[in-house]
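Consider this:
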Amino acid sequence: MIAGALLVMWLGPLAGIGQDAPLPSQPWNTESARRHYQAWGIVPENPEHFVRFGMALALAEDWPQSALYLAHGLKLNPKDALAHGALGNVLIKLGDYQKAVVHFQEALSLDSANAHFRRGLAQARRLQENEQVALRLAELVRANPEDVQARLNLGYALANADKPREAAEQLEAALRIQPGNADARFHLGVMLDKAGEREQAIAAYREALRLRPGWTLVRRELAWLLATGPDHSESASAEAVRLAESVCGQATCRDPVSLDALAAAYASAGRFDAAVGAAGKAVRLALEAGNHGFAEQSRRRLELYQEGRPYRLP
């Protein structure tokens, strides 16, 4: 898909739509739907309007409704490569990798030079393959429900298939049998974090650290969540700073991810000058390593710190 800023410009006023917008469940054949379209300036016979609306809903992360509108736009105009690519991305979010592959293939048949479509197709195929692995492992778990390794393997396969909630369920089941498994506890924290269950993720990271106190990676992830997550208390900020500094002292650290976590911790504690220094170094080192995507994310957080604002996870 086109870059976020360009997408917002192309969408115009529809880019500001939120998930609370009144949307008809069947957006193409009712009088109430037509009244709804008039309110948003949508012409029911215009496929581009449906595609724009679908992409606006994708920006609002309303994936089911986005898929509905994009699919109808494509019904009206099946030769819209951008709409096929956008629907492919939305279907990945919905976990329907097989259909995502079909739409990326169609997008590439219409615009073979588009690198975004090629990357999307590769991602959808990889996730589809990982999902097939998970299905085979699920058969082993059903046959041997007390097999800890089988449940762990299934959890990791579901994680690779970008199904964090399902992965967490398998890891939790494995930990009920083997509660002292620090690796499983850490990966449970990662999956809970991805599923948006951040308080539970923090608890999982704390238990992983109890089981393996010197684990640097867990210290960094816990520091990040304490600094940016749901608990904005002074004690959480202080703990985030302590953990992040134990991982990465600003003067000697050359890991951009750890520096980014350290900057977030400083900002959560109100130490914005220190946050600016750590974030600036993170951006510089990420660029030197060729990690431009992470450098851009860290740069956006740096701008917040320069304005005296901490970064908070959405």
